[in-house]
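[audit] Reproducing an earlier prediction to check determinism. Same input, same settings, fresh worker. If the tokens differ from the archived copy the diff job will pick it up downstream; this log only records the rerun itself.
[audit] input (469 residues):
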Amino acid sequence: MAEETENHTNSRNTLAFLALLTLTACGGGAPEHEAPMFAFESSSTSTPLRAGSTKGLWQTASNPDAHDPMTRLPETGTSGLRVERAPGAKVNVTGEYADLLGLVVSAEPILVLDPENSAAWRRLAQFEKLLIEAVRTGYKQWARHLRPQTLNVDLQIGDSGSANCGGGHSTIGCYIGGTANKVVITESWIVEQYRKWRTAAAYRRGDIETDVFFEVLHLVTHEAGHQFGYRHPEGTTNGCGSATERCHAPYGSGSVLSYDHELKSPTRYAPTKEDIEHITDGRWNGDPLDRYTVTKASAAPSITSYGFWLDHEFYVTGWTGFGSVTGGNGYVRNEMMVQPFVNGTPSAAHHLRGNATWSGDFAGYDLRPSAMAALTADANLTYKFANQTMKARFSDFKLWIDDDPISAERGNYTYDMNCGTEGCWEYVPGDWLITTEFYRDGSDPSGYAAGIVNDYKLEYARAYNARKK
């Protein structure tokens, strides 16, 4: 695999391919009980078919920007994709800055004298990344426990204008209900957090998960709980609610919705099952692994579908310090795991007697931390009978952020494979795996070609399907 101007050839012989036939997906992190990548069964027909699905390797990447596949994956029907979502709600968070200029100048006053100061702008960009990650993580903690629905919520940085928390300098944030229906983080508190983060040793290391990150996460999770209608019959009414509509968890509960800091006691960073029971439409999801399935249908009768499984492992653990949200032991796990597959019944022999070409497309997932989205592209395959090789070329990559196609900023890539009668392959451990199998189209056992790609260098996984020209 390489840019279009560079091809990687594979000199592996048939023995290497036979070894690959027994390779299970556990090499990429799959459970040990996974079936072999290719499963064969005997057949008495003149062109026997092989049973089972073709599975790629599991491919894993961290998710430092806290992208949520629930909101980023497109709706079913977009670009021919079918998307089966995990439990939970699709919560779209609209963020806004009440006074961006004032916030920037307060945090980096050097910009008044030197508006182009690159170090200051770099620090501000890094801190905004921290804010975005904390906000997305806080809302996801509730969203995965809501009944399936789409909710649009607002969060405002800065408290000027109509959405004003009040309470003076000591107020760090609030939820404003009614028609405003937004969480507000006060400007003075954000600037205070910025200055703490800037001077922290963790900032100098470039570590995003600092005490400041968990302070923001705790605040957002707490206030978002109010936005999702938290009520507790035995709770308290600190700053909101009424005698019959208590808006906080009881003292001593350790809940992220409690005011236990007034008791100098620690609280959790994550909602518990009991917390979920006290929000509107709450449904506890006790599994930290959410599975999404993205497929496309094929015109080949012998191919049921092709696509990928996306497992999102997400959870937050830990407690704050005593009487504050600093000095705690918070931890966030946010990982994406993808396995491409083709469901169908491939031919056991292609019976090709000359050169051939196929064209089609693929459905995949872009695992780059900055992307984390469904990925599509064109697929073109060329088989050379003389030397029994296959060239696969992929081009016109598009990311699908929700239902919007965005250029994936990728080039055109080619892979060179060796072929046998049963299929083609290239496997470079740690770099990439690509396979091609042949599928019947009427009387032609090689009318379709389909397979999987795991590319660890380019950070994507996909399954493709192409019809003979």
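[audit] rerun output stored. Observation attached for the diff report: The two ends are 24 Å apart (CA to CA).
[audit] end
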